[in-house]
Write a structure and sequence with these properties.
Number of strands: 5
Mean pLDDT: 97
CATH class: Alpha Beta
Low-confidence stretches: none
Oligomer: single chain
CATH superfamily: HprK N-terminal domain-like
Largest sheet: 5 strands, mixed
CATH architecture: 3-Layer(aba) Sandwich
Number of helices: 5
Shape: globular
Length: 111
C-alpha cells in the first residue's frame, strides 16, 4: 500500500501533498516523540495527534514517510507543513482516533 492509497482508504485530508508516493513498510502509533525516535521503523507512517514542527523533525530523523494526524487535529503552525515539504514527508489528517486508524492501517498492510 502506498501513501496515497493509505490516505484514500482512511478518507483522510491531504495537508502536505508534495511527497513521493512510496509504499509504506509499516506504522507506529505514539504521541511521545522520544518513543517514536526509539521504536518507529524507516519507511512507515506515524499515527499521532502531535501537529507541530518537532513531529516532522522526528519523522525525518527516523525516515518516516507519512504523518497521520488523528481526531481532526489542527496544525499548530504552517511551519510544520513547510518542514514536511522540505523533508518530502506526507501529512494527512483524519477525523478518526488513533485506535481506529491503527487498526485500519494494520489490517490493510497485512493484506
Amino acid at each position: 500500500m502506498t501513501i496515497g492509497e493509505a490516505a484514500a482508504m482512511l478518507g483522510a485530508e491531504i495537508l502536505q501533498d508534495q511527497f513521493t508516493d512510496a509504499p509504506l513498510t509499516g506504522a507506529y502509533t505514539s504521541d511521545l516523540l522520544s518513543d517514536v525516535m526509539a521504536n518507529a521503523k524507516e519507511g512507515g507512517a506515524l499515527i499521532t495527534i502531535q501537529a507541530h514542527k518537532n513531529t516532522v523533525a522526528v519523522a525525518a530523523l527516523v525516515n518516516i514517510t507519512l504523518i497521520i494526524l488523528c481526531n481532526n487535529r489542527p496544525i499548530q503552525d504552517e511551519d510544520m507543513l513547510e518542514a514536511a515539504r522540505d523533508e518530502n514527508i506526507a501529512v494527512i489528517r483524519t477525523r478518526e482516533n488513533q485506535f481506529t486508524v491503527s487498526g485500519k492501517l494494520y489490517a490493510a498492510l497485512k493484506e
